[in-house]
């Protein structure tokens, strides 16, 4: 006979969440979800609260990305849920297993005009894998288990449940929840064998490894496949760091040479979207390896597209025993291009000019960031440089908004990263435009003693809009911000610390102070507004 549990709706929900490995809650207080707080408070379950609901969802997404397990955001009804939709949408595009539990106006008075009465499900359904309302207290654990099973099954993604007020406050009993069911998707062995043969026999193959390689815990399998087949690897998203920068098959600066010269491009765990020229690599054949059939490209036709558990697919590639071409000359050619790119970057990162070049900021950051530091990108122009100049050494140490490109992730991601890694450096790279979206949540970090370093590239403009608009029309509108705004003063006013840097020579000491401060610390760097990064960034 199954074990039974009893309690109010919040206690039943928390039991199911714990069974799925959830260890913390991100929220903004609201009466519709008080029972969830009560259950957490009485059992010592950590609660982290924010000043805007989007930050709660972004924090949950950071945990989901870094830990490869569900992250939880609890939002009150109506505007609480709608304020979190951008975060849900980012999680959807990033395949992050985030669970959002929303409050909901009472079902017994539905249609009478209760406070914050809104049917959330139709709004969030297009950007979630599962969205539903729980109408019985006893059904809460089962509903959470079902939703989390969907969130964790490739292709992963966010899920949503809302619970009417009288349902979550009521008491009942239910079967004790177990861990969610997550099926392993077995790839077609013939497709895998064909992919292995194409890669092995190619003269100039290259691998592009994306976020799903990390999310699928397939980093070791990727390394084994690349080393066995002797194929150069370029990484994007959370695939960055899968091969450390010192690995002989890791390439970051030779991307253009690799894609121009390749005869087979193997894209693993990332879509063939705008970041990868929509899958158009000239005359090269494309092998697209994905974690689920739903992720196969429909706008282009790869030669072969194995779908399924990435560890199984990559391990099978490593086991290939057929004929292989010699790739050593190709690797050497790319290494020459890589070395030239690194020399060029080193010169740019040493630029001793005022106003400060963004490249110089990243040159100084490379000196102070630890190998396992978590770097977080929240911005457009300034953060675009990060993809070029920063090379993560450890997998799972890079967070950016992903293909949805939503600004405002910074403080939420920082909170989730700090909660996940209490002893690592956490560094947010933020444009001054992005600062307007989430900087108030520095107060949440200060109040809950979650120190992070925030480096703002402050050029006083929307750089990715101002320069292109000038080029297109000869003028720009709605593209200027307040020059030299003291974002560090904002952080100090909320209990953190910071400073403004206007001279390149002052950067090293400012960054040293930031990383030793022990409180949220903002380094406000006045960067050159004339220095704009090209849109062909390899950030993602």
UniProtKB/TrEMBL annotation:
This is Acetolactate synthase-1/2/3 large subunit. The keyword Metal-binding does not apply. Residues 378-525 form the Thiamine pyrophosphate enzyme TPP-binding domain. Residues 192-317 form the Thiamine pyrophosphate enzyme central domain. InterPro entries: DHS-like_NAD/FAD-binding_dom, THDP-binding, Thiamin_PyroP_enz_cen_dom, Thiamin_PyroP_enz_TPP-bd_dom, TPP_enz, TPP_enzyme_TPP-bd. Its cofactor is thiamine diphosphate. Coiled coil: none annotated. Residues 9-121 form the Thiamine pyrophosphate enzyme N-terminal TPP-binding domain. Keywords: Thiamine pyrophosphate. Pfam families: TPP_enzyme_C, TPP_enzyme_M, TPP_enzyme_N. GO terms for molecular function: acetolactate synthase activity; flavin adenine dinucleotide binding; magnesium ion binding; thiamine pyrophosphate binding. PANTHER family: 2-HYDROXYACYL-COA LYASE 2, THIAMINE PYROPHOSPHATE ENZYMES. Gene3D superfamilies: 3.40.50.970, TPP-binding domain. One of its GO terms (biological process) is L-valine biosynthetic process.
């Amino acid at each position: 006979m199954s074990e039974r549990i009893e309690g109010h709706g919040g206690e039943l929900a928390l039991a199911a969440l714990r069974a799925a490995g959830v260890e913390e809650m991100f929220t903004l207080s609201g009466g519709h979800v008080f029972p969830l707080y009560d259950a957490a408070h009485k059992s010592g379950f950590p609660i982290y609260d924010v000043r805007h609901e989007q930050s709660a969802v972004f924090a949950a997404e950071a945990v989901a990305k870094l830990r490869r397990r569900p992250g939880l955001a609890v939002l009150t009804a109506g505007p609480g849920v709608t304020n979190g939709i951008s975060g849900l949408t980012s999680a959807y595009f990033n395949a992050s297993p985030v669970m959002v539990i929303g409050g909901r106006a009472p079902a017994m008075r539905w249609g009478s005009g209760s406070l914050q009465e809104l049917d959330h499900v139709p709004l969030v359904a297009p950007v979630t894998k599962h969205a539903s309302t729980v109408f019985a207290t006893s059904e809460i654990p089962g509903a959470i288990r079902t939703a989390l099973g969907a969130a964790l099954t490739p292709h992963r993604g966010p899920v949503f449940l809302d619970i009417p007020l009288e349902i979550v406050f009521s008491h009942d009993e239910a079967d004790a929840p177990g861990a969610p069911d997550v099926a392993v998707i077995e790839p077609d062995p013939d497709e895998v064998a064909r992919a292995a043969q194409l890669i092995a026999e190619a003269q100039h193959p290259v691998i592009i490894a994306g976020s799903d390689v990390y999310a699928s815990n397939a980093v070791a399998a990727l390394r084994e496949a690349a080393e066995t087949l002797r194929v150069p690897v370029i990484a994007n998203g959370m695939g960055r760091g899968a091969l450390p920068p010192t690995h002989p098959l890791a390439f970051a600066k030779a991307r253009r040479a690799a894609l121009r010269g390749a005869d087979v491009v193997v894209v693993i765990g990332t879509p063939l979207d705008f970041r990868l020229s929509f899958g158009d690599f000239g005359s090269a054949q494309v092998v697209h390896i994905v974690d689920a059939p739903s992720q196969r490209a429909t706008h282009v036709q790869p030669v072969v597209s194995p779908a399924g558990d990435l560890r199984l697919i990559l391990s099978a590639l490593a086991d290939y025993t057929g004929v292989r071409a010699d790739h050593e000359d190709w690797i050497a050619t790319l290494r020459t291009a890589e070395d030239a790119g690194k020399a060029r970057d080193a010169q740019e990162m040493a630029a001793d000019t005022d106003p400060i070049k963004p490249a110089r900021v990243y040159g100084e950051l490379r000196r102070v960031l630890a190998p396992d530091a978590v770097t977080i990108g929240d911005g457009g122009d300034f953060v675009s440089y990060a993809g070029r100049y920063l090379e993560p050494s450890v997998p799972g140490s890079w967070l950016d908004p992903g293909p949805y490109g939503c600004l405002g992730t910074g403080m939420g991601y920082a909170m989730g990263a700090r909660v996940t890694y209490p002893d690592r450096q956490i560094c947010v790279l933020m444009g001054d435009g992005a600062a307007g979206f989430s900087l108030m949540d520095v107060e949440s970090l200060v109040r809950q003693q979650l120190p992070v370093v925030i480096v703002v590239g402050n050029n006083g403009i929307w750089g990715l809009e101002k320069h292109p608009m000038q080029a297109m029309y000869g003028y720009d509108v709605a593209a200027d911000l307040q020059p030299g705004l003291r974002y560090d003063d904002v952080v100090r006013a909320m209990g953190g610390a910071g400073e403004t840097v206007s001279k390149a020579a002052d950067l090293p000491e400012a960054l040293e102070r930031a990383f030793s401060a022990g409180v949220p610390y903002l380094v406000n760097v006045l960067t050159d507004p004339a220095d704009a990064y090209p849109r062909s960034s390899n950030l993602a």
